[in-house]
Amino acid sequence: MARLAALTSLALLCSVMISCHADGYGYYPSPTPASAPTPTPSGAGLAVGFYSYACPNAEAIVRGVVTKAVQQNPGVGAGLIRMLFHDCFVQGCDGSVLLDPTPANPQPEKLSPPNFPSLRGFEVIDAAKAALEAACPGTVSCADVVAFAGRDASAVLSGGRADFAMPAGRRDGRVSLSSEALQNLPPPSFNLSQLAASFAAKGLGVDDLVVLSGAHTVGRSHCSSFVRDGRLNESTSDMNPALAASLRQQCPANATTDNTVVQDVVTPDALDNQYYKNVLARNVLFTSDAALLKSGQTAASVVLNAFVPGLWEQKFKAAMVKMASIEVKTGTNGEIRTNCRVVN
After folding, report:
1. 3-state SS string over the chain?
2. 5: how many CB neighbours lie within 10 A of its CB?
3. Residues 21, 86, 216, 222: which is the catalytic one?
4. Is 22 exposed, middle or buried (CB count within 10 Å of its CB: 0-12, 13-18, 19+)?
5. pLDDT tens digits for range 291-301
6. Predicted local confidence at residue 77, as pLDDT
7. Average pLDDT in the 157-181 region?
8. Is residue 66 a contact partner of residue 146, using CB atoms and an 8 Å limit?
9. Is the peptide bond before 117 cis (omega within 30 degrees of 0)?
């Protein structure tokens, strides 16, 4: 209780000061392969309503496909939000995560351990793209479909509280390498300094890190994502003992299959701020989740997001737009795929 009181006091101080400035974490850019198109600065060339004239119903078409899919299976919505994150952190937001293996490239991003077999929602992107090609052939990029789908899944899972305008105009990339997914996607075992450096390399700050981590309020996780990090170890883990005991039953040590469990035991299918209450109660799965209490700045943000009504949703909307602008390819820098699974 004393720790929570201290965190709350710090959070209130931050709120009075409007914002708590990020610490000076380093910037570690990832190398860009020589064969990759040169990315534009983050967000350059994007605009809200980009398809207003070329394909007026583009966003409505995507939203219709996504809404139907997420209403049938909320887990697909969590997958689409995660897909946007995994696409943007590797080669920028260019649809490279969608590319299937080929004889020339047998190990694309989608087959990398961070994505396979856990990443899902590809069939929703395919359906949306097929509908767009029928309405406006060769007009809407797969990268924009991923961005719209992440936005629309957020809107459905939040009951409209996290709905927002998503700028568009991205072009699709032609480079997709499993090794780059491993290099750029932060694993759930990362500590706070590693997470901050990973986000800084993409132009995102510590507050973006805290806010985007809130997406762990929906979806499921494979047991292997936290068991191998010792999160269920009774003698060393800081996880709530009751949750740890429940997870040991769902993720037995002698299991022959990699079971999945919900990430938010309170509201598993709702995109809301429950995640932050779970962090404070130590009811979170990953080392990266628990790490948010390891500094005063991030802990204060956790408290604010947990207890200020509507604050997290507002921050989440802005952070999603910022993330979806990472190293985008626009204009003649990239292509518009006819089939999202293969380059033209």
Report:
1. CHHHHHHHHHHHHHHHCCCCCCCCCCCCCCCCCCCCCCCCCCCCCCECCCCCCCCCCHHHHHHHHHHHHHHHCHHHHHHHHHHHHHHHCCCCCCCHHHCCCCCCCCCCHHHCCCCCCCCCCHHHHHHHHHHHHHHCCCCCCHHHHHHHHHHHHHHHHCCCCCCCCCCECCCECCCCCHHHHHHHCCCCCCCHHHHHHHHHCCCCCHHHHHHHHHHHHCCEEECHHHHCCCCCCCCCCCCCHHHHHHHHHHCCCCCCCCCEEECCCCCCCCCCCHHHHHHHCCCCCCHHHHHHHCCHHHHHHHHHHHHCCCHHHHHHHHHHHHHCCCCCCCCCCCECCCCCCCCC
2. 9
3. 86
4. middle
5. 999 999 999 99
6. 98
7. 98
8. no
9. yes
Share of the chain above pLDDT 90, in %: 83
In DSSP terms, which residues pair with 47 in a beta bridge?
168
User: Which residue bears the tokens 């998503």?
Assistant: 166
* 321, 42 contact by CB (below 8 A): no
Angle between helix 142-157 and 58-72 (nearest 10): 50
The pLDDT, as a whole number, for residue 96 is 98
pLDDT bin (cut points 50, 70, 90) of residue 124 is: very high
pLDDT category, 307, cuts 50, 70, 90?
very high
What pLDDT is recorded for position 27? Answer: 23
Task: Tell me, yes or no, if 86 is annotated catalytic.
Answer: yes
Q: 304: closest CA among 81, 1, 2, 20?
A: 20
Looking at every residue in the chain, the average pLDDT score rounds to 90
Distance CA 150, CA 154 (A): 6
Instruction: Point out which residues pair with 168 in neighbouring strands.
Output: 47
* Mean of pLDDT values over 87-114: 98
Q: In 3D, which of 196, 261, 193 has the Cα closest to residue 232?
A: 261
Q: Phi/psi at 296 (nearest 5 deg)?
A: -65, -40
